[in-house]
Amino acid sequence: MIDLEGACKYYEGDIWALRDVTFSVARGEFVFVSGPSGAGKSTLLSLLTLQSRPSRGRVMLEGTDLSRLASKQVPMLRRRIGVVYQDFRLLYDRSVFENVAFVLRVLEAPESEIRRETLAALERCGLKDKAALNPRQLSGGEQQRVAIARALVHDPGLILADEPTGNLDADTGWEIFRLLVAAHERGTTVMVATHNQAVLGRLPMRRIHLRGGMVESDSAPMAGAQAPPRAAAKDRLEQIKDLGGAGAGAPV
Ligand code: ADP
């Protein structure tokens, strides 16, 4: 689904945010991108969300070379991705329902479908009774759940999340990861950039670790091997829940 080949991103001032990054992510995988601040995580995600283009190398999404994409093709490809940011990026001049419905309106879905799918996405994220509220009336964790409902509502093949728990406390952070794992359970490919050690230490997913813009390590199985069974991550989350409290008191 994602193929990077020698991808580089250069900024003026001799800053190489990414250097020669090569890896592939198969459809249906759940991948963490980790690394200290400044390692290049956000830059990597920005290539995949088509907010920037590589200075060198190739970035492929479902077989499409993103560095060669014509500008007019960008919106169409973006609609196949759901994106979650650290700072939520909701629209505060409209209701929770309209924030989530927005993508379907852009896609010109029929009104009945917009209502059905928006309510289903809100329900999955535990927000059905908040649909009529303004996002400002919600807690940070609830606002991030709105962002996840918005990312999921049009059933994209890929969800990209950039430090989705960066502004949240520990227990709220685990709720967000539970929703991302649930999306993965339903078949969505998920890539999450985070330097959250509690999460990285407890969830057994593939981890691509960046340092200085380069891949320092990649826990991917050998080429041709199967991705780790999805059930493993879900079981782990259940164990955490069983320990008591959403995150068993672990800092997130
Ligand atoms: P991370 O998300 O891992 O914290 P970033 O991808 O944000 O890292 O940044 C990687 C490097 O690229 C850093 O040195 C950062 O200062 C630099 N960088 C990121 N965006 C820009 C930009 N728009 N202009 C110049 N330098 C940038």
Which features does this protein show?
252 residues, alpha/beta, Rossmann fold, 6-stranded mixed sheet, 4-stranded antiparallel sheet, disordered C terminus, binds adenosine-5'-diphosphate
The geometry reads as globular
Number of helices: 8
Uncertain runs with pLDDT below 50, 5 residues or more? 242-252
Order of SSEs: EEEHEEHEHHHEHEHEEH
Class from helix and strand fractions: alpha/beta
CATH H level, superfamily name? P-loop containing nucleotide triphosphate hydrolases
Bound small molecules, which ones?
adenosine-5'-diphosphate
Distance between the termini: 29 Å
Kindly describe this structure.
The chain is of the alpha/beta class and 252 residues long. It has one domain (29-51, 70-242): Rossmann fold (3-Layer(aba) Sandwich). Helix content is 34%, strand content 23%. It has 8 helices and 10 strands. The protein has helices at 41-48, 74-78, 96-106, 111-124, 140-152, 170-185, 197-202, 230-242, and strands at 2-11, 15-25, 30-34, 56-61, 64-65, 81-84, 158-162, 189-193, 206-211, 214-218. The chain has a 6-stranded mixed beta sheet, sandwiched between helices. It starts with a strand and ends in a 10-residue tail after the last helix. Residues 242-252 have low confidence and may be disordered. The site of adenosine-5'-diphosphate (ADP) has 11 residues, from strand 2 and helix 1.
